[in-house]
Amino acid sequence: MPAPTSRFDRDRKSSTAGAGTASGPLPSWIDSFITTNPTFQMMTRDGVNWIDPYTGSIVPAPFDHQRVARAWLAQHQPWRQGPPKRSEELEHLRWHHYLRASMEFARQLRVVRDGAWLNPYSGQWQRGLRLEHGKITLTTLEDLATVLCQCPEAAAGRFLSDATLDVIIANGPTSVPRQARTSSSRLRASSPGTGRHSIDAVDKRELKLAAGEMANVLPKPPRLDGYQLVVHYELHAVRSRDFYHVIDLGGQRLLLTVGTITGAPDTTAAAVAVMAELRAFAHESQTVDQVLVRLNAAVRPRVATGLAVALVAAQLDLNTRQLTVFAADHPGVVLFGRRTPAIELAPRAPTLGEQPSAEYRQNLQAVRRVLNPGDVVILSSLGIHTVRNSAGEMIERSSLYDVWQHGLDWPLGDLVETTCQQVRDFTSRRVGADLAFLALRVKDPEQQIATQEFTNSWLGQME
């Protein structure tokens, strides 16, 4: 009795008579499968790479993956080595690729408590994974890919809402309250954007653990000759929508950004995506305005879904000390020094994503200043400027300016911490929003300030 044949083998035999040699064109049955067979059409989860169904190779294909597949298969001819992989193998490979690419940035994927991993798609705690000292390793990713292949909720590609995950994390692996697994849309509608109330459900231990997770995502500041740079980030809601970035533009130029994400179903994932886009555009562009034009184009398709990106960006030429500032729906850069009273550099850039690229570029305006020795520059998140006290009163910017001007000669870390302490005191320690700070001082060799070397403050004080 002849050996059974698969549908793949039958289709191949029925359409390959004399079709294709080692140096000939792509066989017609392969060409047909590229357009009709799902196994030959599998892309990575980010949609920018095609997966070779024979070898599992990840092939860049941001545009026209069928053309890329034809060229790849014609060049490598992997079908000569055997049949393609099973769809289950390819799906596992697909998830494994996603996990390796996203684990650094998507904090939802990194929640491990008492030896159990939280599946952010289903809300279930998963035990029996190969962890190393309670940490996720490359070996663990193999197990996670297997779990996600068998998870129907993961197929949709959408994490549970931040509010849902907060409650599940707070309760830990021992129990998951039924109400915590309510649909994400209901929880999003009932939960405030700042997370003021969700913080009540999370004890200090959980908050500190979340702060540790954020430390793996947000970049640490570089050491700069002639400058002092402090980065400060406080977590007051376990899942943050605020972010900052420090990017080397090359040519002794630095890009400093602070921003806020609102309106997305998953604001944390949206913030991580915007950070990744900022990095990519900064490495491919010459100036900060080019970065913003490209970011505007990238954000534009998502605005229709409710996404809003508020951002302040400053480019600093480390040689000439020239600062170039753009602000889109966000407080600007505050500059103060011995020769300069505290002022806000706040050019009003168009809202990101609301205009086509050509129009956005035309309407983009910048403020430029040359910094003096001893000058201090502060970029702070919306949370610093929009917090309210128990009476509903918003903090006055003049009070912040007074702190900054008074503390001109303080160690920069002390200046930042004093500002955050004033915000905490104003809100009676119920800030309700994350606080992000980038503070930079031009070192003045003629003024030997009594301060220890202080280059970064990491995640503030989680009291």
Q: What is the global morphology?
A: globular
Helix count equals: 15
Radius of gyration: 26 Å
Determine the strand fraction and express it as a percent band: 15-25%
Describe this structure in words.
With 463 residues, this protein is of the alpha+beta class. Mean pLDDT is 78; it is low at 1-23, 175-203 and 448-463. The longest helix is centred in the middle third of the chain and has 18 residues, at 267-284. It has helices spanning 7-14, 28-36, 65-76, 87-102, 138-149, 152-155, 162-171, 184-190, 204-215, 267-284, 288-303, 357-363, 382-386, 397-406, 412-426, and strands spanning 49-51, 58-60, 112-113, 116-118, 125-126, 227-234, 242-248, 253-262, 308-317, 322-328, 333-336, 343-345, 367-370, 376-380, 435-442. Strands 6-15-14-11-12 form a five-stranded antiparallel β-sheet. The relative contact order is 0.09. The chain is globular, with a radius of gyration of 26 Å. It is built from 15 helices and 15 strands.
Per-chain topology:
Layout: H1 7-14, H2 28-36, E1 49-51, E2 58-60, H3 65-76, H4 87-102, E3 112-113, E4 116-118, E5 125-126, H5 138-149, H6 152-155, H7 162-171, H8 184-190, H9 204-215, E6 227-234, E7 242-248, E8 253-262, H10 267-284, H11 288-303, E9 308-317, E10 322-328, E11 333-336, E12 343-345, H12 357-363, E13 367-370, E14 376-380, H13 382-386, H14 397-406, H15 412-426, E15 435-442
Antiparallel strand pairs: 1-2, 3-4, 4-5, 6-15, 7-8, 8-9, 9-10, 10-13, 11-12, 11-14, 14-15
Helix pairs in contact: 2-3, 4-5, 10-11, 11-12
Summarize the structure.
With 463 residues, the protein is an alpha+beta fold. The protein has helices at 7-14, 28-36, 65-76, 87-102, 138-149, 152-155, 162-171, 184-190, 204-215, 267-284, 288-303, 357-363, 382-386, 397-406, 412-426, and strands at residues 49-51, 58-60, 112-113, 116-118, 125-126, 227-234, 242-248, 253-262, 308-317, 322-328, 333-336, 343-345, 367-370, 376-380, 435-442.
